[in-house]
């Protein structure tokens, strides 16, 4: 099946000599429960080992906890509770800007398990509690490295998934050279989900240039033709 071939291609992009944390973050923060279940299945069939085991072996600390939590696909799908959203926003503030040091486990518990609609309300409540400051600024100021990137990815996908992936595609081709692995993974990953919407956002990020124009300018041969065909 075509969907299975694409899942196998994605698993190849998140396994190699060592773990590509950036690849894992890109895939897991934007995956539905079904997406993640299918990727886990394709990974196990291809490598005869579970993706969760490999992540647990190759990562550590707060990053391992957030990636394993995302992989378990336990995000709630119920609606919004104003009372709970306010409580969650206070917990996030107290775990970050409101204390010395950062309690990543609180960010993990809330950002990985709550529904997208609920989290949008949480982010609005957080801004009120933090005197207008955005939760992204708290994450940038309190965390670092791949842990910071994972939590920022979750927040940005919840706010606007298409814009997040448009920005990630732009980064893969911006400047000297192209991050081929990232470009292929993102185009393949989102081609069956929301690439049409991402392409519209890409034109905003690139100030008018289309994704196909960028790919044609940065790539060549069969590689270029294959990516443009997916677009």
Using brief descriptors, characterize the structure shown.
14 helices, mainly alpha, 231 residues
Cα radius of gyration in angstroms? 18 Å
Count of individual helical segments: 14
Average pLDDT value? Answer: 86
Please give the number of β-strands: 0
The best one-word shape is globular
Instruction: Tell me what portion of residues adopts beta-strand conformation.
Output: under 5%
- For the record, give the distance between the C-alpha atoms at the N and C termini, rounded to a whole number: 19 Å
Please estimate the helix content: over 70%
N-to-C order of helices and strands: HHHHHHHHHHHHHH
Q: Structural class of the helices, strands and pairings? A: mainly alpha
The description of the largest β-sheet is: none
Spans where pLDDT lies below 50 across 5 or more residues: none
Structural notes for this entry:
By secondary structure, the chain is mainly alpha-helical. Helices cover 74% and strands 0% of the residues. It has helices spanning 2-13, 21-29, 33-47, 51-58, 61-72, 82-95, 104-113, 116-129, 135-142, 145-173, 180-191, 195-205, 211-218, 221-230. Helix 5 (61-72) crosses helix 10 (145-173). The longest helix has 29 residues, at 145-173. The radius of gyration is 18 Å and the shape is globular. The model has no long low-confidence stretch (mean pLDDT 86).
In short:
74% of the residues lie in helices and 0% in strands.
